[in-house]
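Async update (no meeting this week)

Hi team, since we skipped the sync, here's where things stand on the single-chain job. The sequence we agreed to prioritize is pasted below, unchanged from the tracker. I ran it this morning and attached the output directly underneath so nobody has to dig for it. Comments welcome in thread, and please keep replies under the output.
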Amino acid sequence: MNRMCRIYNKVAMMLISALLMVSCALDNPVEKQEIMTFQPVVNKARASKAITQSTEYLTTESFCISAFYFTNQDDATPQTNYIESNVVSHNGTVWNTPTDYYWPLSGYMDFKAYSPASLSSQGAKIEYSNGVSLLNYKIDSFEDTQVDFMYSEPLNDKITNAEHPEEVGITFKHALTQVAFTVEPQKYFTTTATDGTTNQVTITIDKLSLRNMYYRGSFSQNPTPQWDVYDEKKQELYHDACLIDYTLLNKEPGQGTKLQYDGTNKPKSVPVKLNENTDLAALLIPQTLNQEAALDVTYSVTQTTKRGDEVIVEPYTITFSNSINIQGNPKQVLEMGKKLVYNIRIGLDAISLEATYGDWSGNEEMVEPQ
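Output:
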């Protein structure tokens, strides 16, 4: 009898061990010695902490990725989170995670990601059902307007692990609205008198501010990518104001972007420069503009009187400031993934404003200026 009990106990232990092995195999797919690597690209522009205009993803940047393992291709929910919100960076050769992950021998894989990876400290997260989300995100400084928050497009199909690509392609889309600025003179202002003296006029745009802009909101990718912006009616739920003023450019008089003309002295539109090598642009939360949203512009007009190369009257500078309401110009909504360009036309004592929508690189007009 005791011997029979011992045999039954051994059989039971073998069955339990087998079940545990099956359970472990289901939770941890059998891997092969092929490391997962990635290839990020950007839909319309690269992802970066600076705003840029190509499809290249800079090797100096990093993004956060999750991988979800499925036993069958038709499974609606993943069996396990194979990679859970891990940072992907470029090691000089390939894009991969700090800890190597290997492709399973069987099953299927799906991937979701956001960029830049630093947004994890502000609450960005990845879930299979909800995709990428970023709750109560704040853009409350000029530095924050330079962070290009992006989320990955869904894969067309789950990847078959046994026939995986050499690199997993991750395509990012922009989650914010890009606002940029160009400037041009209303006409050619330099004049020459009958006595041969020339009144040479130089105009520079020195300061730019956007006022009364919504600066906080929550992003969710699924079921449709969208922002929930905290408007005035919700202010009582939060302990700080929902509107903010952004100082985008702040130069000394005469030190900003100089207005230019072509070879025939016709006004020429040029980008407003943040510095010598960078065009001014800002990334804002997509929103319906507040009725008091405005663009404040300060510019300097410098006149110098010459006869030939001789200075007759030393240069003197006058500074002007104007505020333009931008609600509804060109329309009330700042759209996700679009680029809004304000073209500022400056006269000696007045300015006007035109606005156009385009793709992220500004190549495609989406809305005619009003």
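Quick observations from my side:
Confidence is low (pLDDT under 50) at residues 2-26, 45-50, 236-240, 365-370.
The longest helix spans residues 2-27.
Reply here if anything looks off.
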